[in-house]
Each structure stands twice: as C-alpha cells, then as structure tokens.
Amino acid sequence: QVQLVESGGGVVQPGRSRRLSCAVSGFTLSSYAMHWVRQAPGKGLEWVAVISYDGNDKYYADSVKGRFTISRDNYKNTLYLEMNSLRTEDTAVYYCARVRGLSGSPFGASDIWGQGTKVTVSS
Amino acid sequence: DIQMTQSPSSLSASVGDRVTITCRASQGISNYLAWFQQKPGKVPKLLIYAASTLQSGVPFRFSGSGSGTDFTLTISSLQPEDVATYYCQKYNSVPITFGQGTRLEIK
C-alpha cells in the first residue's frame, strides 16, 4: 500500500526552527521527485519546494527561499523539510506529495499525498 | 512568474448538471496542467494531469481540456459527492503554481 506519513508539526515560536519528516512506504522513494505543499487555515494550496529523485535538484517558492531546506534520505525512505526563521505566516498544514512518473523529474503532477502535519507559528 | 487564474471562484449547481471550471495561465504552459479535488477536511486528490489525462480511479464524468494558456475541467453530470474545492496547478517550471480554487456546491 502506497503511503506517505508526515510528522514533526506542532506549535513553534516565531524565529525558531522545525524539521518535518515524510516517511514513505509501498514504493521506491529513490525513483520519484517529491514536493512539499502547504495550506494555511481557510486558504488555498501553496507549493513550497520540490526535490528531484536523487536530491541533486531543489527548488523553492520565493516565500520560503533561504529559510527552508528540502532534503531526502532514500535509504531511510524519508523526505524532510527543515524550516528556519519561522514566521506567523508559515502557519499551515504541510503536505508531502509524490511527483507521478518514474522519470524522477521534479516537473510533474502530484499523484500521492500524505495526510499532512500542522505547523502553528505563534508566541 | 506565471500566474494561474481560475474562474469562477465559487459555483452552485444542481445534481445532474454539466459543470465547467476554467483556468487561465498568464503565459503558455503547453499541457503541463493538473486538476485537483479537495473535499472539506480532506487531502487533495489528483483528478487530471497533462491537461486531459484522467488519473486512474477517477470517475469518467470528469474530463479536462486545453493547451497553452486556457484550460477547462468539466464534470459531465454533477453528483452530490463532487462537493469540493477544485484547484488547477501548472508544473512546467518553477515556481509551481496553483490556482486560487473554485468552491463547488450543490444547489
């Protein structure tokens, strides 16, 4: 069964850091690019970052560039999002999502999504 | 950056109606467009990719069309379980961008 399970969310103070994890099962992580997408309360979907199958290519939304880092450990079947200098506007549910297709390219639609982990940035 | 504009932002229709949602890109994106359905409190679900390819398991009443800058998601016969917010997404280049969403309700 193909599954993505995010963890690491919670309440964090502005300016602090948090690392999110996305554990995958049911498929070979090393064959797929992966996204992080977030959704602020009552708002639409916002793409955050994408990483190629081998980790060599990483791209970020302007809103998080320089503060967030996407990474992966294909041996541990886990995707990460390191979030630094958090702001109140980073409050959202964070989803990891698989890019469909075995090319490993970052440029594809997301066919499998995790259930999300909620991050609240508040003092 | 390429902007994605969806219309309408909300829509109310009757069961059995044909429903159309449009998405316009500010620049050409070929067919690098996906449509997602997000039911209240649920995870987004991929409906259509490559503008017109139906994702496995998605009912055939959903269809997508378009290329370049103008795209359409059509539900041929609206069902009660189709109540959701629908998003388009362009993925040909970064930044990857979603439309603002279309909330679909049953009249």
- Structural class computed from helices and strand pairing of chain A: mainly beta
Outline type of chain B: globular
> Which parts of chain A are unreliable, with pLDDT below 50 for 5 consecutive residues or more?
none
Q: Give the overall shape of chain A.
A: globular
Q: Total number of helical segments of chain A?
A: 0
Rg of chain B (CA only): 13 Å
Largest sheet of chain B: 7 strands, mixed
- The helicity of chain B comes to under 10%
For the residues shown, what is the average pLDDT of chain A? 96
Keywords:
heterodimer; A: 123 residues; mainly beta; 7-stranded mixed sheet; 4-stranded antiparallel sheet; 11 strands; B: 107 residues; 50% strand; globular
Task: Explain what this protein looks like in three dimensions.
- The complex is a heterodimer of chains A (123) and B (107).
- Chain A is an all-beta fold and 123 residues long.
- Chain A has strands spanning 3-7, 10-12, 18-25, 34-39, 45-51, 58-60, 68-73, 78-83, 92-99, 110-113, 117-121.
- In chain A, strands 2, 4, 5, 6, 9, 10 and 11 form a seven-stranded mixed beta sheet that branches. In chain A, strands 1-3-8-7 form a four-stranded antiparallel beta sheet, with no helix packed on it.
- The termini of chain A are far apart.
- Chain B starts with a strand and ends with a strand.
- Chain B is globular, with a radius of gyration of 13 Å.
- Chain B is 0% helix and 50% strand.
- Chain B contains no helices and eleven strands.
- In chain B, the strands form two sheets. In chain B, strands 2, 4, 5, 6, 9, 10 and 11 form a seven-stranded mixed beta sheet that branches.
- Chain B has 107 residues and is mainly beta.
- Chain A binds chain B through residues 35, 37, 44-47, 50, 59, 61-62, 95, 97, 100, 106-111, 113-116, and chain B through 32, 34, 36, 38, 43-46, 49-50, 55, 85, 87, 89, 91-101.
